[in-house]
Amino acid sequence: MSLLKLRPSLLILACIVAVSGCQSANKRKQELAYIERPVEQLYNQGAQELDKRNFDRAILLFNEVERQHPYSEWARKSMVMTAYASYQARDYDEAIAGAQRYLSLHPGGSEADYAYYLIAVSYFDQIVDIGRDQRTTELALSALQDVTRRFPNSSYARDASLKIDMVNDQLAGKEMEIGRWYLRSNQTLAAVNRFKKVVTTYDTTSHTPEALHRLVESYLTLGLRDQALAAGATLGYNYPGSDWYKMSYRLLTKEGLDPEADSAPRRTLIQKIIPGGK
Asked: Which of 54, 52, 122, 30 is nearest to 83 (CA)?
């Protein structure tokens, strides 16, 4: 079949697509057309669409509340509901922007605590595995800390605190991954800095015992016997039954060092690692 014979068919198809596009555009215009309605009716319709998980339709209706009744209490609430609908639709950028818009206009509004929380969980839900860039994880941590600092007695703060522990564990895991890579690459000093950061900044996470063991390994490699003993003693004092301490204990005793000797002072985790700690 020649190209010339195909052209009429292509023209018909193009017309069908154009007509279909116009119909869709007209439908959208009808949905956004100004039809004055009571504020409660608009808001409740938006809430109903949200319950049905028709997020785009819910957003349109909440926006319509703002457009038709801009100075009402319902308009303020609709701003937060629009951000929440975007969050439920996993449009996190729109959710964050919507919550930030609310806070810029109503910083002391009754929904401010939830707006801050919505920003935090929007970042939190975007956290990726430790093998990738952790910029979003850092933003999540900052936003979660904002919630606990501003609204310490709220239910949002309690949930934010739990999420902060998870975020810190994620960031500590990233530091450990980088530190292990430095060790494998024989960049021991760089590895030490990563492991020390875990011990000093993320000391309540699940990665701390391994970080202390890696410090024992690294210090022994560098010939820093006193620092290796201090790290081992700290590991034994804080995690005496862990496999990491058992491995560190074997390494140290091979070098004639005893982390359980009476001469090894028992101080806190941070004091043991920071030079000059008391």
From this structure: 122
What are the extents of the domains in the chain?
A: 36-170, 171-273
Classify domain 36-170 at the CATH topology level. 1.25.40
Residue 124 in tokens: 């939190």
Distances (CA, A) of 236 to 41, 57, 82, 268: 65, 59, 52, 11
pLDDT of 12 higher than 80: no
Whole-model pTM: value is 0.77
Digit-coded pLDDT (tens) for 111-121:
999 999 999 99
Decide if 36-170 and 171-273 have a common fold.
yes
Q: Which CATH class is domain 171-273?
A: mainly alpha
